[in-house]
From TrEMBL:
UniProt signal peptide: none
Annotated localization: Membrane
A GO CC term attached to the entry: membrane
UniProtKB keywords: Membrane, Transmembrane, Transmembrane helix
Membrane topology: Multi-pass membrane protein
Species of provenance: Prunus persica
Protein name in the entry: Tetraspanin-10
């Protein structure tokens, strides 16, 4: 592949990523106008990602367009930094959350999670009242727990379901509590829990409470 062909490919790839970046920024601006605080909180990260993509893309585009070795070197260095950053973030995320991959429970197709399985740093961040209150309010507003009874019409379907971590940890009490399920979103709370797990007492059938305050939900 000749130099001309290479710059042509770089130019068009970066032109397309510039369009993508503009779309991301526009999406971020749109989110800032939303009434939902959960979505608005993502405005700065989304716009930031779009801005970084646009900056790198325009440097690569101009470098290829003008055949500027300086701009192309800057472009390659930025790509290198971004690649290393993504790699470091991935490794750190794996280290922080690896131990919290969940516990298999006999008779269930999904895993249950416990807060103490995660790294001390991760637990500390979740225990930050401001951080968790914001996350909790977003979870309550989401449809994850609300839609359980719609997704699983019968108790048999619910018991055989492969629940997501949020559905398993935030929408229902831990299985060790032993509360009988009446349906996918309601448990018989008159039953005395067989476990000393504090989550058993924290769970409530109310839509705005559920198990949002449980350690199993603070994933």
């Amino acid at each position: 592949m000749g130099m001309g062909t290479s710059t042509f490919v770089i130019r068009w790839i970066n032109f397309l990523t510039m369009l993508l970046a503009i779309a991301v920024v526009v999406f971020g601006v749109w989110m800032s106008t939303h009434h939902d605080n959960c979505r608005r909180s993502l405005t700065i990260p989304v716009i930031g990602i779009g801005a970084v993509i646009f900056l790198v893309s325009i440097i690569g585009f101009l470098g290829a367009l003008k055949n500027s070795s300086i701009l192309l070197w800057i472009y390659l260095i930025l790509l290198c930094f971004i690649s290393v950053g993504v790699l470091v973030f991935t490794v750190l995320a794996f280290i922080v959350t690896n131990n919290g991959s969940g516990h298999s429970v006999a008779g269930l197709r999904y895993k249950e999670y416990q807060l103490h399985d995660y790294s001390p740093w991760f637990v500390k961040q979740l225990n930050n009242t401001r951080n968790w209150k914001h996350l909790q309010s977003c979870l309550v507003k989401s449809d994850d727990c609300k839609n359980l009874s719609k997704k699983y019409k019968t108790l048999k379907q619910y018991k055989l379901a492969k629940l997501t971590p949020i559905e398993a940890g935030c929408c229902r009490p831990p299985s060790e509590c032993g509360y009988p399920a009446v349906n996918a979103s309601y448990y018989d709370m008159s039953f005395h829990p067989v476990s000393s797990n504090k989550d058993c007492k924290l769970y409530k059938n109310a839509r705005d409470i559920k198990c949002y305050n449980c350690d199993s939900c603070n994933l």
